[in-house]
Design brief:
Helices cover 22% and strands 18% of the residues. The protein has 315 residues and is α/β, with parallel strands linked by helices. The longest helix has 16 residues, at 237-252. The chain starts with 8 loop residues before the first strand and ends in a 38-residue tail after the last helix.
């Protein structure tokens, strides 16, 4: 059986005025996202580094790194983006540091990959492969922590970044308490992002209003189904793309959400293949809408040569 709670009282605080209040609600949806609490690993000697250290969460302007030797710690999407942005806007050289495996893109001259940082002594950074270099700035592209401090411990989701956090039915309904009235929305590692959010939001609304066409399963059946998704999570990127397409299709069953949405997985497969072919030019590719059939206009300039990052330069 699912653990239940009789409490439906929610305490809130206005952070500007400090005013607190208590209110009763029938359901709770936690939709604050998972990109609000940066993961900042510690490395021996990091406190002696005299240069600038930021997390990619706080990155705003690549021109601040012009002429600098930049270390990017990480080997995922934000790391590749930080490296390319800094190189594009004039960084002198960039090293990305990976923990488990390199990204292995065809990097432009000036960007290289090395194993994880071992220690720092002043501006000198030593790596696990025995090499060392001097840097002016460090960007930590090291991901985020799931953090929901406003939830009581028994109702708090804890997880690492994954396509399907455990203990959630349909990726949203909390199965470890809450009397089937607590939801976590948008807590998955994302390819489809807003498409997935739309499908998830619609399913939650239909669940709350009891308008889902299929009979709800028992809690034990829900747990077994959720576990099947969890066990399928560890795959390569193309399998992950298809995983999320299948998840959206399952989430949309009977909700009248667009059946075409999961077909966007073809775009994501092409996106990754384009990156593997040329990490510098993949942003210049054109795509055709699944709904209108309209193809996007070609970029006025290749991305790597376009220094105007305003929306007007792209739309």
């Amino acid at each position: 059986m699912c653990a239940t709670t009789n409490s439906q009282m929610i305490s809130t605080e206005d952070l500007k005025t400090g005013h607190t209040s208590d209110s009763n609600f029938t359901h709770v949806i936690v939709a604050v996202g998972i990109f609000n609490s940066p993961e900042k690993p510690y490395f021996v000697g990091i406190e002696t580094f005299p240069g600038r250290i930021i997390h990619s969460h706080d990155f705003r302007d690549a021109t601040k790194f012009k002429g600098q030797r930049v270390l990017v710690v990480g080997a995922k999407y934000s790391a590749e983006d930080m490296a390319l942005q800094c190189m594009k806007f004039g960084a002198k050289c960039i090293v990305t540091s990976y923990r488990s495996s390199p990204m292995n893109y065809k990097w432009p001259t000036g960007i290289e990959e090395r194993p994880l940082v071992k220690k720092k002594i002043g501006k000198i950074v030593h790596f696990l492969n025995g090499s060392s270099s001097e840097f002016d700035s460090i960007i930590l592209s090291t991901g985020y922590k799931y953090k929901f401090p406003f939830m009581e411990t028994s109702l708090r989701l804890t997880s690492s970044s994954t396509l399907y956090p455990a203990s959630l039915y349909k990726g949203s309904l909390w199965l470890q308490g809450g009397n089937r009235k607590l939801f976590y929305m948008g807590v998955q590692h994302q390819f489809f992002t807003f498409t997935m959010f739309d499908a998830e939001g619609l399913w939650i609304c239909k669940y709350i209003t009891d308008t889902l066409p299929n009979k709800l399963k028992s809690c034990e059946e829900m747990k077994k189904e959720a576990q099947k998704w969890v066990q399928r999570c560890n795959q390569d990127i193309h399998e992950q793309i298809d995983f999320q397409a299948d998840f959206i299709k399952d989430l949309s069953d009977g909700t009248e959400y667009s059946s075409d949405a999961p077909k966007a997985n073809t775009f994501f497969h092409k996106w990754d293949n384009d990156k593997r072919a040329n990490i510098v030019t993949y942003r210049d590719q054109q795509f055709k809408s699944l709904y209108s059939g309209t193809e996007s206009a070609p970029c006025s300039k290749p991305w790597f040569q376009n220094y105007d990052d305003t929306i007007g330069a792209f739309v």
